[in-house]
Amino acid sequence: MRPAHASAVPVSFRSRLRVFARRLVHQIAQGFIIMACAAATAAFAQSSAAASAGGVFNLIVGTYTGGKGEGLYVYRFDTNTGEATPLSVAKTVNPSYLVVSRDARFVYAVNELPGDDGPASLRGDVSAFGFDPASGQLTFLNKVSAEGNDPCYLSLSPDGRYLLVANYSIAADPGGSFSVLPVEPDGKLGAAALTVHHEGGGPVKGRQDNAHVHSTVFSPDGHFVFAQDLGTDKLYAYRYTPDGGAVVAPAESRYTHMPAGSGPRHLVFGNDGRHAYLTSELNATVTVLRYRDGHLTPEQVEPLVEPGFKGAVGAAALHLSPDGRFLYVSNRGDANDISIFAVDATNGKLARVGRQSSLGKAPREFAIDPTGRWVIVGNQGSDTAYVFRRDPQTGLLGPDPKRLDIPSSVDFKFVAF
Prior knowledge:
Elements: H1 11-46, E1 56-63, E2 71-78, E3 83-91, E4 98-100, E5 106-111, E6 125-132, E7 137-145, E8 151-156, E9 162-167, E10 177-182, E11 194-197, E12 213-218, E13 224-229, E14 234-241, E15 247-257, E16 264-269, E17 275-280, E18 285-292, E19 295-303, E20 315-320, E21 326-331, E22 337-343, E23 350-357, E24 366-368, E25 374-379, E26 384-389, E27 402-404, E28 409-415
Antiparallel strand pairs: 1-2, 1-28, 2-3, 4-5, 5-6, 6-7, 8-9, 9-10, 10-11, 12-13, 13-14, 14-15, 16-17, 17-18, 18-19, 20-21, 21-22, 22-23, 24-25, 25-26, 26-27
């Protein structure tokens, strides 16, 4: 009888076995890469809000300045008590969205212009500020053109070299776009290296007459940028090529179609790096998408309103709890609430666990503090913000929140010091 050693195994079988082994190793490696990149991206996003001594953080609030708002407000926020103490104000026009550098030394804010009534020839800007976390003081550095109308969203590249600004653009000319701004070593911004314009529209008259880029989000692996276009019902995919001539270029998967008239707005990636979550403003839904190598595939759609709801809607922001177990989504219009979903760790799917009134009008943005104990919700139309205690186990928000009187508050960022 022939000995049972390697030569007894048919060559074809051994070949298939080697191929299988190589594929298995590749799949395992890919899984580790995705998880590592997701962790790195999450760390990058949270690094400016890393643990502070005694659980105390800085809280920077962006406002609209057409009414009583003056610009950027800085508070000292104690996560032990939920108390927010005013520190300083930096005057700037309509800083409706802001981001903080990874080292917490710089803050970037849009200047959302011209708005509903301004001339289409007026371009919005992006302002750079130096930030002293110890004192909570902001120092203006410079301002550059967003090269588009109504800038409404900012995202820093994972390597910190570029700042992307989404230009919603109420006016059809120039229409929705996003620009790529170089970040200088001293924190100042350079003139746009590239501006990408979208074309087209959707079926909702008055809201989708032209393209409206509402957010630009980097993938967990840092290789792609997704631009959510409310006007065209598409999620555009671009490859990030910082050492190439264009910085960003259309990806092989040019875009993902969303339902006509849905109006995609904001996107966040899950902690697993394999799923993303999208708010669609016009039909008030949140969509679960599977992510893989520059491709987004819709897998689940959940309504934000209760069955039979007949009022106006306006899905806005969405954020994951620090542990990734719960997703929170704001809805404006006549709903004015926060939907709370549990995230299935195995497949990324969502299951509703609660709903919380924002206790005001137009909850455009909100934030969860880095410890996961508190959620602060801004009511743009009521000049208030409420600080809700959060149960990390159930994801639910507690009664009797603390009220802050902040004029037209629309964005919140926690920063360590």
